[in-house]
Amino acid sequence: MAQLEELKTVKLTGNENYQIWKFQIGIILKSMKNGDLLNTEKPADAAKLRDWTHVENSAQRIIVTSVSEKVLSLLFACDSSKTMLEKLDAVYGHKSDASLHTLQQKFYGATYNKEDGIGGHISKLEHLVSQMKNLGETVSEGMLVAKILNTLPPEFSHFHSAWDSTPKGEQTSSNLTARLLIEEERLKNKNPEQKSENKEENTALINQNEKDHPPNLRNVKDEVPYREAVGSLMFLAVISRPDISYAVSRVSQYLENPKTIHWNAVKKILKYLQGTVEYGLFYQPEGNLEGYSDADFAGDTQDRKSTSGYVFQFCGTAISWASRKQRLVVLSTTEAEFVAASEASREAIWLRNLFLDLTGEEQTIPLYVDNKSTICVLKNEITSKRSKHYDIRYYYVKDLIKEKIIAVMYVNTKNQRADIFTKGLNRDNFVRLRNNLGLTKI
Fold first, then answer.
1. Where is composition skewed (Basic and acidic residues) in this entry (predicted)?
2. According to the model, what pLDDT value does residue 194 have?
């Protein structure tokens, strides 16, 4: 009996942990010697009364020592373990909608706390899931896994691509926890000079309009190696780092007359690269060739020209990409997207011929565009009054569609992977699209 009384139990504090407490106390009371007497009325026989009283007193002692002071006040009027359990069940036994709503808010609103670490963070989420399940809520394994992934700190952003490549049957919360703990330990053991690399700088750079930057316009052409730095960045942006293409495209427009603001932007790119030096393009074993094209209408505040961007991916990873200012001023978003699609189609022709040489098979390359008006113009053989002014050189793409060399398809703006090549993005969207390009920590 002493061993049972010394068991450490979860203290009952209210609705949120009543089901766990009830299950625990039920097991303990059933394990007591002569515990079955608790379900009987008070006997009249003296010998049986002695055993019943001993068991009853022990049960009451176990109950009152396993509840908080607030809950204990509810039991003052109870004269038996049975009435105590009935009282607690009447107060906390019902499924509280309010309590469930609170747990749901805590779960879906949970964020990562650096002090908890990965293990503590996941434990908190698992505990909330357990509490919700006790109140009848259905929380699937996939929901828990998704919540864990969506609340990881920035230094784990590379982990998403690695997890996506994991076989579906192995995408369990226990496997995820084990892998994250290993990755956390790996990051902790990195060399001191590499620790700063975990803090990724958002490559907003001059992604935001220049009016957002301090008005420091002193010419620095003869003071800093601006041209050399931009040249090195352009090489990297073309070869293996599509994530900096837009930023490098912007700073390269000021080679002849760079100001302090432009040099600061170059330094931000370098700082971002320092924090992501381990990133590279990771190719999956299987996949198809597909392209995405996008445009930022009149994004340049100086000459009101638009920016075109495209990316072609094979096996889920970028193999060809570009970010460049359009040569002419267009009059609408539709026209800007039309020009971007035409530029992307020329790259599609080259890639199609390359794949034809490698595989001997001709294929239609899907080109995803997020503007439905542009798709209508591209597929419509009749020129409307709204599009008759479009430069004739860009009508080449219509022939490619007609000949089924490319197939223009619609994609939601959120899933437009070429968006990263046309404009400045906030951190969340930038990291998400960077991951979609197949750029991950290697």
1. 184-202, 209-219
2. 45
- DSSP labels, 208-268: S-GGGS-----B-TTTS-HHHHHHHHHHHHHHT-GGGHHHHHHHGGGSSS-BHHHHHHHHH
Taking the mean position of all CA atoms in its chain, how far away is CA 374?
30
Separation between Cα atoms, residue 411 and residue 419, nearest integer Å: 12
Name the pLDDT band for 34 (thresholds 50, 70, 90). Answer: low
Report field, pTM of the whole predicted structure over 0.70 = no
d(Cα 14, Cα 19) in Å, to the nearest integer? 10
For the chain, how big is the Rg over CA atoms in Å? 32
Q: State whether residue 207 is helix, strand or coil.
A: coil
Q: Which of 304, 316, 305, 311 is nearest to 341 (CA)?
A: 311
What is the dihedral sign for C-alpha 373, 327, 396, 287? negative
CB 323 within 8 A of CB 243: no
Residues in the chain: 442
Q: What is the pLDDT of residues 10-33, one digit of tens each?
A: 788 877 777 788 888 888 888 877
